Amino acid sequence: MNATTTEDAGVCLITGVGPGTGAALARRFATGGYRIAMIARDQERLDALEKEIPNSRGFVCDVADADGFKATLAKVKSEMGAPKIAIHNAVRGTFATFLELDPKDFELNFQINAMGFLHLAQTVVPDMIDAGEGVLLMTGNTSAYRGKPRFAGFAPTKAAQRILAESIARDAGPKGVHVAFVAIDAVIDLPWTRKMFGEESDDFYCQPADIADECYRVAHQAKSAWSFESVIRPFGEVW
Questions:
Q1: Among 35, 150, 141, CA closest to 83
Q2: Range of the domain at 93
Q3: Domain with 202 in it: what CATH number?
């Protein structure tokens, strides 16, 4: 990981700052000189990360609350400035077959995963277009490409994210805004996943810091060689 720079690179906004990928993203982009706006529901976690990560601020918000989310995004812009990079990492998943699926769960998954991404894009991308530069990133996974039986309530919402991101990229890309979808085909190394898959070797898991490094790389590609999709997985993952 690169050493922390003292240069102000601008504001990087991250939704879904949990203890894994979200926190790793905040740490990684902070080392690049970004001022970090962290959005999550957990005030205690945000307070702890504010103390750990230089030039970071936490904003308590439930992305499923559309009005509250848009108000929070407006607050970030007012108090920190328009984001130069925005990463939608907020996610919700429930796992059931289509017959078992509670439609209310499906609706809430869609609200956070797809609608949340739309609200974020509609809020931050116009400022990026005006500036002639900016990055809108989505952390997704390979559920966006395939509908397994027990993923009926999750995969469609991730597929919607990817297609929405592609539509935005085709519109905003020629205007200077890099839109990218980073698909994670892996079990991410977290305490609860270790408990669930504890007998697996370390090589089985994808490390949050490594995911963050890839997102940082994609966000800093030269305009002549932008990626839209990056699919990452541990070397031993069956695919």
A1: 35
A2: 10-232
A3: 3.40.50.720
Chunked mean pLDDT (size 10), the chain, 239 residues: 67 96 97 98 96 97 97 98 98 93 96 97 98 97 93 96 98 98 92 83 90 98 97 90
Beta bridge partners of 136: 86, 179
In the beta sheet, which residues pair with residue 132? none
Total domains in the fold of the chain: 1
CB 183 within 8 A of CB 141: yes
Residue 18 lies in a domain: yes
Structure tokens at 195: 């408990």
CA 185 to chain centre: 15
In the chain, which ranges are continuous DSSP H helix?
21-31, 43-52, 66-80, 103-110, 116-131, 155-172, 191-196, 208-219
Q: Are 189 and 207 spatial neighbours (Cβ–Cβ below 8 Å)?
A: yes
| Distance in angstroms (rounded) separating the CA atoms of residues 9 and 33 | 5
